[in-house]
Write a structure and sequence with these properties.
Elements lengths: L2 H8 L11 E5 L2 E4 L4 E4 L2 H4 L8 H13 L10 H14 L3 E5 L2 H19 L6 E5 L8 H6 L3 H4 L9 E4 L4 H9 L3 E6 L2 E2 L5 E2 L2 H14 L2 E5 L13 H5 L5 E4 L10 E5 L20 H13 L2 H18 L5 E7 L2 E6 L3 H10 L2 E2 L1 E3 L2 E4 L7 H16 L1
Helix pairs in contact: 3-11, 4-11, 12-14, 13-14
Bound molecules: pyridoxal-5'-phosphate (PLP).
Amino acid sequence: MNTFERDQQYIAHTYKRFPVEIVSGKGSLVQDRDGKEYIDMGSGIAVTSFGVADEDWIRAVEEQIHKVQHMSNLYYTEPCALLAEALCSRTGMSRVFFSNSGAEANECAIKVARKWAAETKSPACSTIVTLENSFHGRTLTTLSATGQAHYHELFQPLTPGFAHIAAGDMDTLKALCGSGTVAAILIECVQGEGGVIPLDPEFAKALDDFTREQNILLMVDEVQTGNGRTGALYAYMHYGLHPDVVSTAKGLAGGLPLGATLLSEKVKDVLSYGDHGSTFGGNPVAAAAALSVVNRLTDDLLQAVSAKAAMLRNLFGGAPGIETVTGLGLMMGLKTVKPAAEVVAACMEKGVLCLTAKDKVRLLPALNIPDELLKKAADIILACCAG
Ligand SMILES: *Cc1c(COP(=O)(O)O)cnc(C)c1O
């Protein structure tokens, strides 16, 4: 059996894979088993922040692997303490809880909101409001948070205590909050899986003001938008928001599993001994990798991300076969005349790996993709959209 056959036989059929087996890579170039080379415009869905097999990232991982690859959370380890310090000092948040994925980072946020509201208001104050078309993960509770009915249908009963409102609908939010049962609002600044749709800045500002007025937690899901992806360290910074909780994962450790839930001063002590935990959370190798990633997200790097994004927007804006360009920074969605899946297949044929999100072609290249490669990929994408 080859890998395709073995995978088909032995792995649950939850992923519709392309018939491509990636075996190696360097930076934003990856090779398949037949030696065909691709420009990677997906970064493993915004995970490999500095591309594949990046030298600095390898060094950080390798150094830690030779020291200790894992310790239980019963003991201290340096990488996760340093990483927590770096995240707090860069964001102004006060403490971090580490987990292993985006869904888990959101689970932690939801637990914090529920306990905070129960203690400071009442146990009946347990509702988390999220937006329609949002995506917050695949565990049963984060699925319940996700505002897309088609993810819910087969998995009833869901976790109770979630309400979904349309982006921009302050009236419904106010009505919900009027009943005194809302603990928190959880938002993505740019809906990723939902189709690369940025939040309207006025609505974002209104949420920021409203949550503070009402003493409701504002929680931002930065799993996809975080860690430099949008040209800011976290996308909420573009919007000038004051979140109480920020969850992140995907690109944080540049290719190893790591989730982080950042807690503001207001909620930093909500979780106490025994309230939450994770065997692998804050694993020293993942944390060392993340520290190397976060330390590279300098102002210069973030400016370069924005410059690369502007270059792409210039190339795609108004181009034949492209109706709209959405997103923020290097998180970009193209509404194409042809079906997105058709464009992605054509791009793959011509050596460019792209993603889809709903009806869009979604691009999430490495933050340090060289301009020449980015142009080359854009030319191929343009040809596939037009032709
Ligand atoms: C990917 C994603 C998640 C889920 O992350 P996992 O690591 O797959 O659990 C949650 N929220 C958003 C916004 C995401 O893009």
